[in-house]
Amino acid sequence: MGFIRRLFKRDTASEAEKRVSTPAPKPIEPKTTAPLPPDEVDEQTPLQTRPLAPPKKFDSRRQQIKFASMSDIGQVRTNNQDACLAMMAKADMVGNPPPMGFFVVADGMGGHHDGELASTVTVQTLVQHIVQDVLLPQMEGFEPSADQKTIPEVLIEAMEAANQAVQAQVPNGGTTATCVVLRGDLAFIAHVGDSRAYLLNEGNLELVTRDHSLVRRLQELGQLTEAEAEVHPQRNVLYRAIGQGEALEVDTATRRLPPSSRLLICSDGLWGEIGDEAIMRIVRDTPDPHSTCERLIEAANLSGGHDNITAVLIQMPD
Amino acid sequence: MAQSNETRSIQEPDQDSLSIPDGALQPGQILQNRYRILGVLGVGGMGAVYQARDMHFEDVPRLCAVKEMINLAQDHQLREQTFRNFRREASLLATLSHPAIPQIFDFFSFGDRAYLVMEHIQGKDLEAILNGSSQFLPIDQIIQWGIEICDVLSYLHNHRPEPIVFRDMKPSNVMIDHHRRVRLIDFGIAKTFQMGQPGTMIGTEGYSPPEQYKGEASPAADIYALGATLHHMLTRRDPRLEPPFSFDQKPIQAYNPAVPDDLAAVIMRSLAYNPADRYATADAMKQSLEALINGGNAITPQGNFTQTPDAPQADQPAAPEMKTALEERHAAPAVQHTPGRASQAKPAGMSNVLPIWTFKVEDAVRSRPLVHNDVVYVGSYDNNLWALEAKTGQLLWKYPTEAGIGSSPAYSGSTIFVGSSDRRLYAIEMRSGKLQWSYKTEGKIYSSPRTAAGMVFFGSDDGYLYALKPGASTGREVFKYPAMHPIRSTPVVDGERVFFGTDNGDFLCVDFSGDLGWRFQSRRRILSSPVIHDGIVYFGSDDWYLYALDIEMGMSVWRFRTRGEVISTPVIGDGRVFVGCADGSIYAVDLDNGRESWRYEVGEPVTSSPLFHRESVYIGAVDGALYCLHSKSGELLWRFQSSGPILSSPSIADDIVYIGSDDQHIYALPG
């Protein structure tokens, strides 16, 4: 384990030079040399806006964001009702647009083919909105203004459109949807259901999304323990999903993805099968996204593969 | 699966198209050779509801509602079963008789569709009534509706041989007709078309009780759903937009203080998590509601249609006293939270702190005081920059400029910088109050200077952003950037760049060589000064938005819409950004998703900027009060009343809060 760590901890001096092109900030030099007493709130740099070292950023001209996606039917189901999509656009041209990406996992529900239809319609509707209202404008270059919708606004609109589309085209179907728009190192997340997004950074695994499942809700209310939730007969029941009603509330979040961090989006066929501990180990210890997805799915199948398994992984450069 | 002996006068719907609008019946089409479609009344998940005319009545327009249900079961057996269920339920409905239940006239099916012909009800459903108003609806009206709904639920639950559970109680299923009577619509017939499957989720409307997930639909479920419906009507909070079963975390009176305690108690009992803790019967709930009107006189205008003579006696809450929470909260500002706890606002117009000292100047104080080394420096519209001893308020010196000072002072080393509307930036020696130098611009200066990287940055009404290098006897211009519009907000510096907003809504990033980095255009003037945190810059605009932009290229991260101009400068603390707004509220917005965490309503515009210190947010308002709110919940901790609007922002040092007011005083308050 230590060997693998050393392989990927590339913090040598030569590597440091290749990194971040923004210069470190010049320290503020007051005329007097006496430092400010720490407790005194200083009008020049009030507590809450003391300038931080700028967040470490990768050089998008030299380094690549890597990603992979994979979906598997599992060992028990007779069809795969998960749908996923992963795409990135990287451009070197006037205007210097940052690298852009879009990633979705949708886990469909419903009889016969309703589930796979619902998840597919959702992915199609989402990608159409994102490409049209986020990716293309970004690549075309524009002066930022209040006339453009923000990315979270587009994501919410896209999810609502997917909700309408599923209700119209697959009335008995529904689906989860967890998607991420990536702009440079900023991830914009929108989410409905119990698929999940995890952020792995410096050995810590953080669950970024909140399950919209009945058992999660009962746990929050103190009606169930985590152990009870895991075996609860209604653990698959969701109180929020795409295609189930007119009023749709979408969870949104933004996260900065630090260098070397990874963002994993997956359906419950993965997290419900192998658990957070195993996910963390595999993601942390596997060097490239494609192998990571393979190993994750393999682990879920070995553990029983009771549901369809889908994983999308984004890996930030060092 | 056409029934061969039924005449088909309408076009065979396109079997391939599953999207409802395409396959909808058109006006003029005739069903069953009898019902002429006039138009679409609405579209639901299962199909459309049409307005139609019964052609059997040739001389008069006899209107009816035709509800269409599309059976999408692929499997032949399932389709048959589904139609059987539908027929059974339709027949059952046809035998019911209650003023609140629409009459069923006819039913038939062919192809993959089924039709129910019902009494056409003219009126508005409760959801439409809520949407048609932005105010709270009259409480007595809501109680009356609750009573009528209980009456019809009781009728259904007492049905023989088997109780009928409505299963879908929610505002959009309750109509109020033109005679002001409650009518239940959407009678759960649609439920026969739903298919369940292990692993499938059940959509909740937010009105369904927890046990409904296990498939247990009992009369207690209708009572819960009615409670949820009344909760929504009283508070205007849609339970579908909140985590389910969270009613006890959202006390009714926190949202609508006018709701009396006893009504709230009835609602909360019907919403008990455990079915056994709710009202045992709809009749019992009805009696409790009736007791709230007429002080115990249980007369309903529509009469009582419950047929069972010996309804079981249910225990009722104690006889209510009609005191309202409103009386307790008279003239207090309403407190509003999103996911939140209730908190009592203290009565308005009172202070519950005493100042440590006050100092009277000669005109309004509209800028934030600077506190440094135990001295309070503050500018006033009386033209002076004042220096006062921080602990005692004793005057140390004052420096007279030639016009009012609307900006806040800044310091670097032993120099205090301040701009004046006499067009000059002044550099004044801190201890003596003597002028070191001044710098003349072509416009009034309202922007507060910012010192960083050995320079002082400020904007002027002449449209330039200035960067000066202060010396002992002069300020040397390093660069001046032509923003072309007055700059009244305070610049902020990060790395080697300076960020500021202008009067025409531009937000600019200029680097230390005086070159433009990027520009973001908002729609209206920016008076609010920006604040930077973690690579993102936050500022408000007169276009009602609070913006969060990435400082690299000025691209938006999120924006938050208020209902008024955001002139106040935001402040960051504890994962949130706090800002005041001309719409009368103080907002706390989550940094990582731009959603409202809480909102405190002051009622008067809040144009000054908040201060964050140790889990408290301090902010002054036009009503003359300085508020201290808890940063996590927005709960009021204390307030201080001055005698004039507070347009300036507070400062804090050593747990003393310093604030100036239009009443010409500077106050030092215990923090």
Topology:
The complex is a heterodimer of chains A (318) and B (671).
Chain A: H1 2-8, H2 13-18, E1 66-72, E2 82-89, E3 100-109, H3 114-140, H4 151-169, E4 174-175, E5 177-183, E6 186-192, E7 196-201, E8 204-207, H5 214-220, H6 226-231, E9 251-256, E10 262-266, H7 268-285, H8 289-302, E11 309-315
Antiparallel strand pairs in A: 1-11, 2-3, 3-4, 3-5, 5-6, 6-9, 7-8, 7-10, 10-11
Chain B: H1 20-23, E1 30-31, E2 35-43, E3 48-54, E4 63-70, H2 76-95, E5 104-110, E6 113-119, E7 123-125, H3 126-131, H4 139-157, E8 174-177, E9 182-184, H5 219-235, H6 252-255, H7 261-270, H8 282-290, H9 325-328, E10 335-337, E11 357-360, E12 370-372, E13 375-379, E14 384-389, E15 395-400, E16 410-412, E17 415-419, E18 424-429, E19 435-440, E20 450-452, E21 455-459, E22 464-470, E23 475-482, E24 492-494, E25 497-501, E26 506-511, E27 516-521, E28 531-533, E29 536-540, E30 545-550, E31 556-561, E32 571-573, E33 576-580, E34 585-590, E35 596-601, E36 611-613, E37 616-620, E38 625-630, E39 636-641, E40 651-653, E41 656-660, E42 665-670
Antiparallel strand pairs in B: 1-2, 2-3, 3-4, 4-6, 5-6, 7-8, 8-9, 10-35, 11-42, 12-13, 13-14, 14-15, 16-17, 17-18, 18-19, 20-21, 21-22, 22-23, 24-25, 25-26, 26-27, 28-29, 29-30, 30-31, 32-33, 33-34, 34-35, 36-37, 37-38, 38-39, 40-41, 41-42
Helix pairs in contact in B: 4-5, 4-8, 5-7
